[in-house]
Amino acid sequence: MFKKLLFATTASPVCDNAAKVAFDLELKWDAELILFHVLGVPTRGYSPFITDVRTGETEQIDNDYVDWVREEMKHTYADLLKDSENNRIEAVVGAPHREILRKARTENADMIIMGSHTREEDVGASRYRQIVGSTMQKVAKGARCPVVVISRPCTTCWKLFSNIVVGTDFSKAADSAFGWAYRLAKNVDARLHLFHAVDITKDAIGADHGQVEIETRLEEARDKIENHHLSKVTDYDNYTVEVWEGTPYVEILKFAREVQADLIVMAHHTREIDPEKALLGSTVEQVVLRSACPVASVNRPDKAWEIDPD
Amino acid sequence: MPEGKLCNKQTVDTKEQLNALLADKSGKQYYQELKALDVDGDALWATLQKTCKSRLRTWLEICAHCGMCADSCYFYLANNKDPKQVPSYKIQSTLGELVKRKGQVDAAFMEHVMDVAWSQCSCCNRCGMYCPFGIDMGVMFGYLRGLCFSQGFVPWELKIGSGMHRIYRAQMDVTTEDWVETCEWMVEEYEDDWPKLEIPVDKPNADFIYTVNAREVKHYPEDLAEAAILFHIAGENWTVPSEGWEETSLAMFAGDWAACKMQVESVYDAMDRLKPKRMVVTECGHAYRATVIEGPYWAGLKNGQTPVESIHYVEWVAEALRSGKLKIDPSKRIKEPVTYQDSCNYIRNAGLKESAREIMSHIAEDFIEMKPCKEHNFCCGGGGGLNGIGRYREQRNIGLKVKRDQILATGAKLVVAPCHNCWDAIRDLEEIFHIGIRWSFLKPLLLKMVEVPEHLKPEE
User: Fold this and answer.
1) Does the ipTM exceed 0.90?
2) Structural domains of chain A, ranges and CATH numbers in brackets
3) Which segments of A31-152 are extended strands (E)?
4) What is the pTM assigned to this prediction?
5) How many angstroms away from the CA of B281 is the closest CA of chain A?
């Protein structure tokens, strides 16, 4: 299911948890792992200067500097590299989200793995917030393959996942999220939990909702899951369906906790262009920031419904 | 005659030369070699006799040393009114001396000339507006840079830059394949949100061709996507040329006139090949000056016009807002106080101030002018290639103070800066002085507030 994994790292402790998962996946799936670090952000107009994303300092870039950063990455991941069998270490200059997306595209990566890139102690993130702080969000939006974001230690190894939650809102992108989650669940023999939250926050509709209305909508959502998703499920019965009401990101987090989810899969689709607003406004961002388990964002069908040769 | 391995009078025309220069971090060896570089005084004098003609000679001679240009120069203001920063002094003590000494000068003098020509003048041409005789020291420094380049006395980064243009017809190593592929990539990435989005390549007879800055392609392709989306919303019939898409000219900053000619001719060839009605240039200042204002003369076009009419991005936006092709959602206009950075190259030197004001009247509710503004505005502090030269970082940073104080005086926290160099200079001044401002190109601002016709929205 995974032949080529792109681990997009800030090469700082923010990504330590993600690194463990990335190396784990490489071994368990016999995949090739690309450790990829975007080390500095260039200027908009002509200049040889970059802002180093880890230190926030202005640097002049040349090949020696890139080699030096790659050496540093080797040290950072020395322990994990010991067991690794198939990896490449690469460092480039650019806007982080753009270079990660470019790399995923040219390599035809099956999955992008990253930390949340938004923690305050990340010097680059706070100084260069308008670029680095929203890296995860922009990558999740633009990528054609699934993007797995890991911000907390992941205790279960991927192949032993037993509970995968997939949140749906019945959008086209959610079809892809479901497709990928289903494929993965079958592959690792996990229980698949289909989940939808009926949004009853005032903002969504603009008024309070009566109990009858809410219940009607819950019923409609169950039907939709049946027609929309379950109709595509063949020869697999290890799944559950849940529909709750509330604020979507809160409900999915509560549900994931209840079923002891090892992974949450969701679609990331927002038309909001302003990254700051989208960061606060979109459900997947809220889930990523708060989730105890990894969160996979799947937007497009490219890697979701492929027939698995295994 | 000693010529350095890296620093010499040769132009950079091969990838081998280019890579050798790039491998020399910060130009360390290059600048060492520069100190020992021989000056070919005879050649310099021959060039002066051939090219320093009546206008420049007259300017050099009639300067009355009245000092009226002093306060017009932001370097003079930012350096505690140091007399050595008075524009007339700066040009008389460099170009004036070269003429007086008939080109017979040594390497130390040429190094000094280079330092003055690139670190004490950004060719913003503001002084020319205040000289009672109309002497434009910016023009003269541009000319002087050409003399320096011909003798190999040019900042390391700009030697590289002009080489890029010679080899790639772009300021960065972006090939035709990279460029076309980037266009495809951006459509792929954005077409879910914008069904039927296109970046048509090499479409003949379009209403206009759109040309860009290579850094957008190399590092910030969203800019291209945003341009495409806005053209899409406006219903434009447009295209990009597969070759001749690069508008900028580091060769102009370097004073490499032969490379300037090569670069603009690639764009003019695209016009001849695709026969668009017009050309639209991205949000870049010097690119417009190079390709639209100066370029025709480099290419030997006697009427001083580009082969087809060429407009800057601000002109396109102003026109689209005026005609209703782009409509602004009134509720989404910028509410906070906002100011506008007039780029020297397309405002002072190309007269586009009213286009900028027209745009601001549509998108902002509380537009505050800098003082001075329009054609009297100060350079951002990073023009003329200065942002890109490591050797003069300190001088550049001192010069930024003038723009900092101008912005602070407006009270605005948002600066609209439709020029790559201005954008960088303003970002850098925030990094240095922490005055708590934000800055933006026009495209992302417009995308936040433009009304999207129903038929262009995705289904769902």
Assistant:
1) no
2) 4-149 (3.40.50.620), 158-303 (3.40.50.620)
3) 32-42, 49-52, 58-60, 87-93, 111-114, 147-149
4) 0.91
5) 15
